Every structure is written in structure tokens, then in C-alpha cells.
Amino acid sequence: MMRSSAVSLALGYVALGITALVLFAAPLWYAWQVTIQEGRAEILQADAQRLTDIFHREGAAGLKAFIDARVGMQIAGERILLLTDASMHPLAGNLSMWPSTVPARPGNYTIQVEVGNQGAQPALVHVAMVGSHNLLVGRYNTIFAPLQTRFWYGLTAAIAVLSIAGLLVGLITRRALMSRIHSIRQTVSAIMYGDLKHRLPTHLNNDELNTLTRTINGMLEQIELLVHGVRNVSNSIAHDLRTPLAELRSRLEELALIRPPPEQTYAEIDGAVADVDRVIRIFDALLRLAEIDAGMRRSGFVALDVADIAANAVEFYAPAAELKNIDLAFRSDGPVSISGDPVLLAQALSNLIDNALKYAPVNGAIEVAVFKRSDGTAEVSVSDDGPGIAESEKSKVVERFYRGDASRGTPGVGLGLSLVQAVAKLHGSALALSDRKPGLRAAMTLALDAASAAALATPPQETANVNVIVSATLTSS
Amino acid sequence: MKILLVEDNERVTQFVVKGLQEAGHTTDHAGNGRDGMFLAASEPYDVIIMDRMLPGEIDGLAIIEVLRKAGKRTPILILSALSEVDDRIRGLRSGGDDYLTKPFAFGELLARLDALHRRAQAINTEMPLTVGDLHMDPLTRKVTRGDRPITLQPREFKLLEYLMRHAGQVVTRTMLLENVWDYHFDPQTNVVDVHISKLRQKIDAEFERPLLRTVRNAGYSVTADD
Asked: Per-residue pLDDT tens for B115-163?
């Protein structure tokens, strides 16, 4: 229990409280003692002076009579008076003899005086010389004893209350903390054993533990998402790699069984190599996706002109478009500088154009456009006039290995749009697919560089949206 | 070419050594980092093929770094199963000249070795290039075949220039993508083939002897030989 942080914190506070109390009481005690001592000594001196005055006025007999009268009047034990002659023989007073510990010299002394059945009591006495007589005036310290006792009692009680309260608070805090930690621990161990659905219990208040719990819950959310993603991917991999591997296996098995003539064997071997290449291509695509998803590529971000990248991709695909007699056009309003990964953006754009080329009809049209928008972003879009994607399939096409009905029979492994989606996500965007009726428009919105965004704030110049036939006009090399 | 292969996998070694032999090259082989380092430092090679992960304390990148510090300029092709961009960058930064990931096609390896070897022999990039009756002047950007001028788009010019600088060698699609378009990924459809056929239209269509040839299962080659 001593190792509980709540209890040790409480104990620390108790110790601090006691120290503060003692530090406060000690000088008080000292000042009190000094003041009382000095005050009493002055009173005694004044007493002695008054008695000395009586002696001078009325002589030894007068003083003796005065003392006798005073001793008779006063409550016993409160005041000590003694007058002796030069040979220390008592003449008057309430002490039977001169105390042995007090020298016959003027001054203040603390002595123990026997008082009836109460035993020895401390007393402060003042000694003065009156002619050849010795005068002793004193008071018992006992009148202050109850005050002192009460002071000590008070101090002790305060310390005790402080300690008990501190300890109690510590224990209660510990209990509350332990119960919350216990429930967290239970949840965490459930998660540890693989049930990622659990979340840590949170309360409405915003204390430190709750803030931490919420952060951890956010982390669990992300982990669950990732694990779910990994599970999905491994399922898809298992499915999609199995197909070409099965083909390869049967091809090889057949070769081994039938042992066809060399020419046919060589053709089969070429086919097997192509099968393996397909598997390798899927692997490469998956690895690249994993790399992008892990966010590692963000280190490769540089300032770049996305319009230039798009123009290059369009130029790259221009001959392929020409072959299908598709009008592949590029539109932009000048350089669009953003911070990003040039290789991945090029690959994403190339995948989008590749897709559009696959689905656009012969004599169709594809438009690649890069435009700045007034809200400090740039939109990169690829539109075609192909069959488009059914609403129900839109969310599925970006999934790994998903291939729409329209894509059956076309080459590809179903990772193209997943990669575009991943690249868009890496750049803080998402792939948006919309209908053009007919056709599909795939777009991603990228944040502009700070400088370009600032330039947008100034009134835009007249921008000419020139539709260019790319292969003839682009000269970037 | 005299080639050193530093590779611990026996299958890969057998495959590469045999292929290189058939292509007319002499190959020395080292199965671990220590032997590889020793051979690379003591023998004169035209090209070194270096596996990244090797048994023993010395790995491929360490050998390359040591060789480069010792002033050895032999071109080195790194062969590795590590395919991520960062691995590639690290490999090239350590002093490697090219990077090929496993698994690879032999044609790709051979083409890259040829390119490395050619690059190592100082090339004057301003010198006019000639293959058969095809001429290219990189300075004036004029291309002629026989006495007929040929008009090329900038990218077509770059494509032809790369092919002509590697005249007589096989150039793979990946090499073209990397060097002509600076695309370090595999486009889904073979767009490179379309570019090649367009180029072929311009330089070969009206002539009797084709110069730009397709090498089956490997890539392309510009050559005047038969």
C-alpha cells in the first residue's frame, strides 16, 4: 500500500503539513517564552522596589508588618515572599528558610519550591538587598502551565487530525483510482487477448485520467482499423495470389505429366514465366501500398508542380490514346505548386489515366485537369465518357483487389484505384468518384503550398482554359 | 566483360553465372562478404553484381562503401530483395550505380550490366551519335536518316537518344521508363511499346533496313548489325 502513488502523495502532504505547523509553532513558542520571562521579571522587580520603598519609609519593622499582612492576605502558592536578616535568618514571609540554591546576591533565579502536598514547583525569584536585609520576591511558574499544556495539546491534536485526514484522503483516492485502473486493466487485457472491440471506460469529467483514456481509445480505434485493414488485405492476397499460382501449378504439372514436344514445352514455359510475373506484379503493388499506408513516404515530400506531373502523364499516355482514337486532353491554368511525393503522384495519375483509357469507348474523350481553387486547394481530375461506376460499387472499387463487373476480362489486378486512394490519403486528400452521365470523374483535392495559397488571395487574373491537344504542344523534357 | 558476382544464394548464382557465360562474359563468384571484398579489391572487374544481404559480418553495402573509400570506381549493380524506395536510395547512396530487386528477369540484369559498363567508359554527351545511316546531333537536336531529316517530339528525341547511346545493347522497358520518363513504377499497360512503335514509324517505316528492333522477352535494341 505504501507503494500506491495516491497514498504516498497523501503521506507527503501530511509530512509537509506537520513541518509547516512546527515551523509556525516554534518561533511562536520562543517569542512567548521570552516575553513571559521578561514580563515576570519586571513585575518581580517592581514588587521588590515597592517593598524596598516601604523599608525606607517605615523601617524593617514596617516592612515586616507589611509582608506579614500580604502573606496573610494572599492565596497560598501564588506569590513567594521572604525577608531575612544579614545572617539569612527569616524575619517574615511564606518561605520557612532561604533556598539553598539562591545566592544572597541581587538578580533573577529560577528555583524549585516545595509547595504543600503538590511537590516541587518551578518558580522565578528576584533577590534584592534592603539595607543589611535580604529580600526575596517570587512567583510560581505554574500559573502558565495550563496555557502551555493547552498549547501542546492543540499542536498535537492538529498534527493528529492532519495525519489522519491525509491518510484517509490518500486511501479514498487510492480506492477510486484503483477501481478505475482496475477496469482499465481488465479492458486492456481483453484487448491483449485479441478482442479489439473493447474501449476503456470514460467519465464525463475532464480529469487527467479521462484525457489519457480518451487518447488511448483513439489509439485503439486506429489500431482496430489497421488490423482490420491488414486482415482484409491478407484475405485478398490469399485469394488473388492463389488464382495465378493455381494456374501456374496446373500448367507445370501438366508439362511434367504430358511431356509435350519441345516447341509446345517452350511456349508453356513462357506462359509460366508470365504467370510468375503476374504474381510478382501483385506483390510489388501490395508492397508499395503497404509502404504508402505506413506513411513512410511522407519523408519524400518535396515542393512540386502537380500540373507538370499531370501534363507529363498525359503526354506519356498520348500515343496509347491515339491508338484507340481517344481525345486525351489536358487543361490547367498554369503551374500548381504543392508539397508532395512526385513519384507517387505520377503513379496515381498514370493509374487514373490508364483506367480511363481502359473504359473510354473508341473515339471517346478523356480530360485531365489541374486547377487551383479559391479555397487554397488544387483539384486534379481525370474524366472519361466510359460506362462509369454504379453507385453501389463506388466505395468498393477503391478496396484492394476489387474488380467491378465491367473490368472482367481486362488486364489488371484490382489494385489501381486502391493505390490512387492511398496516395490521395497520404497527401491529406481522398479519391472522389462522381458520375458524368455518361462517364466517370475521378478527382482528388490537394492543399496548395503556402506561397501559392497566398497568391490566390490576390484577385485572380483572367485565366484562359485552353484545351490543348497534348502531344502537339507539350515541350517539357 | 569480366564480372564479379557476390551472391550467397546458390540457385541465383547458378542462374546468373550460366546466363552471363552464354552472353559471352567471364564471371567470378564469391559466396560471402569476406571473399567478395577480397576479390573486388584485388582483381580488375568491368562490373560487380553485389547482393545486399550476405552471410558473415560484412554485408553488400559495407563492401561498396569500403571499395568507394579506397577509390575503386568499378560500376556496381546492387541486387536485393529489399524493394522499398528507401532501401533503393540507401543502396545508391552507399556508392552503388544501379539497383535491381529480386526476383528479376535475366534480360533485365544483362541489359543493366551492359548499360553500366558503357556508362563507365567516359562518354561525351555532346558528340553526334550514329547507328548505321541514322544520325543524331544532341547539340542541334537534328536527326537524319540517310539524307532525310526526321522530326521528333522532345520525348521521342530523348527516347531515341537513350536507345542510340546504348546502341547494340538490349534496353528493357523498365530502363526506358526510368531514364526517359523518370517513372520509377510499372504502368499497368505497356505504354512504352506504343511509344516505341510511334518512334519506329518515324525512323524505320520508310526504310528497307529496320534499326529499332524488339528483343523477345527482354526489350528493345537499336542496331545496324544483322
From this structure: 888 877 656 677 888 999 999 998 888 999 988 999 999 899 999 999 9
Query: The sheet that has A327-332: what strands, in order across it?
Result: A432-435, A440-447, A377-384, A365-372, A327-332, A468-469
Which structural domain, as residue segments, surrounds residue B102? Answer: 2-120
Chain segment A92-138, per-residue pLDDT in tens: 888 878 887 888 788 888 888 776 666 777 778 888 877 788 888 88
- Most A CBs within 10 A among B155, B158, B159, B182, hence the mutation to make, goes to B155
**pLDDT, tens digit, 9 for 90 and up, residues A198-228:** 888 887 777 888 888 888 888 888 888 878 7
C-alpha cell belonging to residue A343: 513519384
Question: What chain A residue is nearest to B156 in terms of C-alpha separation?
Answer: A477
Q: Contact B187/A477, CB-based, under 8 Å? A: no
pLDDT tens across B58-106, in order?
888 999 999 999 888 899 999 988 877 778 888 888 889 999 988 888 8
Residue A189, CA distances (Å) to A185, A192, A194, A286 in order = 6, 5, 9, 32
Distance from CA of B219 to the nearest CA of A (A): 15
Say if residue A364 is in the same domain as residue A267. no
**C-alpha to C-alpha distance for A176 and A227, rounded to whole angstroms:** 34
Q: Which three cell numbers stand for residue A419?
A: 493505390
Instruction: Look at residue B159 in the predicted model and tell me its pLDDT.
Output: 94
Same domain, B111 and B134: no
Work out how many CB contacts closer than 8 A connect A with B: 64
CB A21, CB A158: distance < 8 Å: yes
> How far does CA B65 lie from the centroid of its chain?
21
**CB-CB contact of B161 with B136 (8 Å):** yes
What's the gap in Å between the CA of B52 and the closest CA on chain A? 19
Q: Which residues of A touch B85 (CB under 8 A)?
A: 291, 297, 300, 343
Give the nearest partner residue to B187 out of A273, A300, A350, using CB atoms: A350
Q: What does the alpha-carbon distance between residue A183 and residue A407 come to, in Å, rounded to a whole number?
A: 51
Size of chain A in residues? 477
Q: Does B130 touch chain A (CB under 8 A)?
A: no
Residue A428 has pLDDT above 50, yes or no: yes
- Type and span of the H or E element at B47: strand B47-51
Regarding whether A236 and A259 lie in a shared domain, the answer is yes
pLDDT at A408: 44
Smallest Cβ distance to A287: which of B83, B158, B195?
Answer: B83
Query: What is the pTM (predicted TM-score) of this model?
Result: 0.59
3-state secondary structure of A79: strand
Q: Which of A258, A277, A293 is the last residue of a domain?
A: A293
Compute φ and ψ for B99, nearest 5 degrees. Answer: -140, 125
Higher pLDDT, A291 or B19: B19
Q: Look up the domain containing A246 and give its range.
A: 227-293
